[in-house]
Design goal:
Number of strands: 14
Distance between the termini: 30 Å
Largest sheet: 7 strands, parallel
CATH class of the largest domain: Alpha Beta
CATH superfamily of the largest domain: Glycogen Phosphorylase B
Number of helices: 20
Number of domains: 2
Structural class: alpha/beta
Radius of gyration: 23 Å
């Protein structure tokens, strides 16, 4: 057994046992993590465990909200390929579980993932008994993977991506991850660059396929005209009022956006600005920034349509799950986490609405999406607040040019569908081996 893995198991187990009493006290006092705690410890509730029937049995882990969207597309294909299959989806957070429950309803069971402690994941695997274990994107949990491998469970990574930031960390302990990656049966990656990176980590090139991004498939079906009408009504927007949306912004970006917005207002004084921070708990901090810059604002959570209408030019989006819908009302969209070195935000979400998409130089986490837009002359990079203002003003001054960027952006997404089917096919190959 790999000495690095033995060290990992010993360290994580000791940390868990030492801090378990403190963690329990924290849960009792704050209420956090109370929901689903038993599932995090590997126990599955009777309401989920009792109907564990169907074949093959597929356990799919989608940690974040974005990964759940990718899982949604792949699950839809798997249900068509194997109508009798049983699928269970695990996630890490309460928001993730709520989204997954809303998406899948009763067709797919949703649970919290177990902590990556050897005896906890062993218990969870014994309870669920999957034939196939599927991890989305960059989820690599050593104990979970090793225990599944020891039980003869087939393991897949789908919609796989390895960012430039994460590869540096992985390479520092390459012998450890080489051993863990050797336990996977197939890697279905997003891009050739993702393939190259996971090979450099030690994955077997013969097990790796490049199949695109499954999230492309969902986007086209989600962009409905009725959403834009409803959002315009909700936010009291006149058809002629241009809307600038800054989505998934990070610390330091809001000040840049406000500076750019001030310049835009000089030429287009009716422009409305929506700022949607990646972490909504920062809403108060952003509100203080806006006040210091002598702008008035409203919180999205305060707006109730007819009862409380938007009447300020700046809106801080302090609610979950609305960003994609919000993009529908934008004249121009800026993707955050990109003017600061945070890896960017998915530019294809506004693109599918036919919106011109702007982003900063830091798009490491979405290189495939950025490349897709730029190959189709549909994405615009800005390197500073001044350049952001300049490009926004240029587009607002040229409606035909602005529309052209939007049309090309949407067409780029439409031309690159069916990735979910290719990722599902990688899983299907493992299922057929199990059946045979």
């Amino acid at each position: 057994m790999n000495i690095f893995y033995i060290a990992y198991v010993l360290i994580t187990t000791c940390i868990f046992l030492i801090f378990w009493p403190v963690f329990l006290l924290y849960v009792r006092l704050t209420g956090r993590y109370r929901d689903g705690l038993y599932e995090r410890l590997g126990w599955i509730s009777p309401s989920i465990k009792s109907p564990l029937s169907g074949s093959p049995r597929i356990w799919m882990h989608a940690a974040s909200l974005g990964e759940i969207r990718g899982a949604e597309a792949v699950v839809g294909v798997l249900k068509k390929l194997f109508p009798g299959c049983y699928i269970i989806v695990s996630t890490m957070t309460e928001h993730g579980r709520n989204l997954a429950s809303d998406i899948f309803g009763k067709e797919v069971r949703v649970i919290y993932a177990p902590f990556d402690i050897i005896f906890l994941v062993r218990r969870a695997l014994d309870n669920i008994r999957p034939d196939i274990l599927v991890f989305l994107e960059t989820e690599i949990w050593p104990a979970w993977i090793s225990e599944a491998y020891g039980k003869g469970i087939r393991i897949a990574m789908i919609n796989g991506r390895i960012s430039p930031r994460s590869i540096e960390k992985y390479m520092k302990v390459r012998p450890f991850f080489r051993d863990i990656l050797g336990k996977f049966n197939v890697f279905s990656m997003i891009t050739e660059e993702d393939k190259r990176r996971i090979i450099s980590m030690g994955a077997d090139p013969q097990k790796i396929f490049v199949n695109g991004n499954a999230k492309f498939d969902l986007l086209t079906g989600l962009a409905e005209d009725s959403i834009e009408r409803d959002m315009r009504k909700l936010f009291n927007l006149e058809d002629a009022a241009p809307v600038l949306i800054a989505g998934s912004t990070r610390t330091g970006e809001e000040a840049m956006i406000i500076n750019a917005y001030r310049k835009v207002l000089k030429e287009f004084p009716e422009t409305v600005l929506f700022i949607a921070p990646r972490h909504i708990e920062r809403a108060k901090e952003i509100a203080s920034l806006i006040k210091r810059n002598q702008f008035e604002y409203q919180l999205r959570s305060e707006l109730k349509g007819d009862s409380v209408k938007r009447d300020k030019q700046v809106v801080i989006v302090d609610t979950f799950g609305e960003l994609f819908k919000l993009y529908s009302i934008g004249a121009i969209v800026f993707c955050g986490a990109s003017l600061v070195p945070q890896g960017g935000q998915n530019p294809l979400e506004p693109a599918v609405w036919g919106k011109p998409v702007l982003y900063g130089p830091s798009m490491e986490d979405f290189l495939d999406a950025r490349a897709l837009l730029e190959e189709n002359n549909a994405g615009i990079e800005v390197s500073s607040p001044e350049m952001l203002a300049e490009k926004v003003i240029m587009l607002l001054n040229n409606p035909v040019l602005m529309q052209g960027y939007g049309v090309r952006a949407r067409d780029a997404v439409l031309k690159n569908r069916n990735a979910a089917g290719r990722h599902a096919a990688a899983i299907a190959g493992l299922i057929r081996i199990c059946i045979d």
